[in-house]
UniProtKB/TrEMBL annotation:
InterPro entries attached to this UniProt entry: NTF2-like_dom_sf, SnoaL-like
Regions that span the bilayer: none
Boundaries of every SnoaL-like domain copy: 16-148
Protein name, per record: Nuclear transport factor 2 family protein
Pfam families tied to this protein: SnoaL_3 (PF13474)
Species for this entry: Streptacidiphilus fuscans
Length: 163
């Protein structure tokens, strides 16, 4: 076996893909219980390498309780959110899986009248989701979301450097 070559079976890739989608579905539905089930639990969640999360613009959160509290706060203050995932890549190496994707986000903006949904606002973030195989199946171990601050442009990564 060559070191560094993904060893995941098609079944592993499918299971990780499903676990990744479960994260975004739970967020869209505002379902904290379902979101809780996505994350690692027990000893896997609270050791030094346990649950870790970086929301766009937030400091790093460590430990299951801190991570889940952050999602509860986000859900409590978000009337509507929908994710359109693009550029999804899934790699599995043994008992660890890496998912990278672009989160194209549609959410409600500030409301003018109490009880109404605010205007829809779009945003984009790139995400790295790291999963661990546990006795309960694939569970999210680390999420890192970073806002995309550019409007696109060069897809090849090369700019027009002059000077």
């Amino acid at each position: 076996m060559t070191e560094g070559v993904p060893t995941g079976t098609d079944a592993d890739v499918a299971a990780v893909t499903e676990a990744n989608l479960a994260l975004y579905t739970a967020l869209e539905e505002g379902d904290l219980d379902a979101l809780t089930d996505v994350w690692v639990s027990g000893a896997d969640a609270d050791d030094v390498h346990g649950a870790v999360c970086v929301h766009p613009g937030w400091p790093v959160l460590r430990g299951r309780a801190s991570v889940l509290r952050s999602y509860a706060l986000i859900m409590a203050h978000t009337d509507y959110i929908q994710f359109f995932l693009t550029d999804v890549e899934v790699e599995v190496l043994g008992d660890v899986a890496l998912v990278t994707c672009t989160e194209n986000i549609l959410s409600s903006g500030d409301v003018e009248t109490e009880g109404e949904l605010g205007p829809l606002v779009g945003g984009r973030a790139v995400a790295t989701n790291l999963f661990r195989r546990t006795s309960e199946g694939w569970r999210l171990w680390s999420h890192h979301g970073s806002p995309v601050l550019t409007s696109g442009g060069d897809d090849d990564g090369e700019g027009d450097d002059e000077g």
